[in-house]
């Protein structure tokens, strides 16, 4: 049956879209499942599951290897997927590199810069070379994937790692960034949307500030590309990273975006088959991007499935997706804010935020909160969400996070809030 999804997200979710996600039809602990953990990993529509299976059943072959008809078919599908994803984020296909995930994508840049600092890459790699007089800037709110690679890069090169401090609610401003970014800054790396607070960063302003100082900008777009229209060229970032599994796609594949001239100059972090032009016993010369970074056997079926996920989102319309999630975000914040004895982390009600909310119930560990919600059929994320420094700054060890996506309904948000309101009394904690 063909379902018209063009207006499937219009503030209130249509049942036909929910039917695209078989995962959501199950029960959890005797209750209808309310899946509120999409910021960790999104569920996949049948179209995406079918696309990968159909490719594996009929078109699977090693890409860019050999000259057989099957290799040609597989390679065409692989590169067509790159074109589809590139168009979705305002990039040229040459600027899209397949990676294992977003973490891998960020590490590719960090490791390439470390190699450049070690003298690899020739004169073209000069923009990536760091030394003791240079600074790398992140924020105190970063996911570990956008913090630890830069810690290691600083340790390898002697550069100084600095960070934009967050405020008591976990947010930061362009003025806060301006207090740290300066003439010694060579790289600024930050998340478009915080996976803990839902804070939406002022990307264009940070890019302008960084570029004025001659610094490169890397954007962690894991929590933005799946949820809103994102055009990397328009934003002006130099690099960006995002993952398929957070945007209705498969595990095992992520995306590194980079401006073509930068990717062609960045030393490849991993080397081997498919990345080279010429190899002797003493040296190797490398292809331009994207093949330059895609050593070894590629995630072909995953790329095909990611392209189908992009087509699905395009069919919904990213403006409609964003509007739907904006409504859910405010509903989520409003509902949580009315609960006595619960602390909401991040922007206050009425302020812009993504459709996620992390909360603390004083006197009750987040793991216990999560287990209570789980018993009510509500799936959420608990822990530090790979952001220990941010939690430490907020005086917290862990939080409970609910996050929404295209298939989330207002009723599920209300179920979450109603169950959360029962937590203090259930554990004998006074509000």
Tell me about this structure.
- The chain has 431 residues and is an alpha/beta fold.
- It folds into 2 domains: 15-46 and 317-426, Alpha-Beta Complex (Aspartate Aminotransferase, domain 1), CATH 3.90.1150; 52-314, Type I PLP-dependent aspartate aminotransferase-like (Major domain) (Aspartate Aminotransferase, domain 2, 3-Layer(aba) Sandwich).
- The protein has 14 helices and 17 strands.
- It has helices at 15-18, 46-58, 69-88, 102-117, 148-157, 174-178, 203-212, 232-235, 260-263, 300-316, 318-337, 366-375, 388-393, 410-426; strands at residues 27-28, 31-32, 34-35, 96-99, 135-139, 160-164, 185-191, 216-220, 239-243, 254-258, 276-279, 284-286, 343-345, 356-360, 378-379, 381-383, 399-403.
- The strands form 5 sheets. It has a 7-stranded mixed β-sheet with strand order 4-10-9-8-7-5-6, with helices on both faces. Strands 13-14-17-16 form a 4-stranded antiparallel β-sheet, covered by helices on one side. It has a two-stranded antiparallel sheet with strand order 1-2.
- α8 links the parallel β8 and β9.
- α4 (102-117) packs parallel to α5 (148-157).
- The longest helix is centred in the N-terminal third of the chain and has 20 residues, at 69-88.
- It is globular, with a radius of gyration of 22 Å.
Notable traits:
431 residues, alpha/beta, Aspartate Aminotransferase, domain 1, Aspartate Aminotransferase, domain 2, 2 domains, seven-stranded mixed sheet, four-stranded antiparallel sheet, 14 helices, 17 strands
